[in-house]
Write a sequence for this structure.
């Protein structure tokens, strides 16, 4: 597939969206404990993620993300946009805990004919890039 993005305001013709078929709980991350982070999120990441890290997210939760992406895809296609989805990735035992590929644009972007990998702060987010390969 040839990449060709020269502006952010022209008509969207083709896009890559995320995938939510394989979700795994992350570990805690310093960035989620910063002062400006909501207290409920600090609590969840510090206490709940410590217990659940690396485990598969239950289907009743994952289905919500899957449904949201499916609806998003329908809307895009109904407006004439060709939609691609990243390949689902399964983390290995050597990878940092966690996996969620719902937000395909967070870790990678395109400029002109180049696909650029951003410098993400949370290591598990780098695993998502395998889905573009």
């Amino acid at each position: 597939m040839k990449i060709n993005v020269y502006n952010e305001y022209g008509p969207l013709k083709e896009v890559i969206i995320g995938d939510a078929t394989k979700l795994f709980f992350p570990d805690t991350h310093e960035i989620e404990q910063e002062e400006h982070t909501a207290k409920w999120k600090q609590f969840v990441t510090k206490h709940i993620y410590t217990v659940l890290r690396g485990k598969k997210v239950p289907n009743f939760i994952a289905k919500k993300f899957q449904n949201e992406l499916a609806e998003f895809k329908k809307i895009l296609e109904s407006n004439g946009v060709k939609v691609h989805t990243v390949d689902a990735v399964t983390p290995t035992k050597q990878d940092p805990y966690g996996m969620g590929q719902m937000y395909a644009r967070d870790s990678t972007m395109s400029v002109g004919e180049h696909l650029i990998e951003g410098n993400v702060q949370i290591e598990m987010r780098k695993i998502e890039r395998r889905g573009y390969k």
Remarks:
- Residues 59-78 form the longest helix (20 residues).
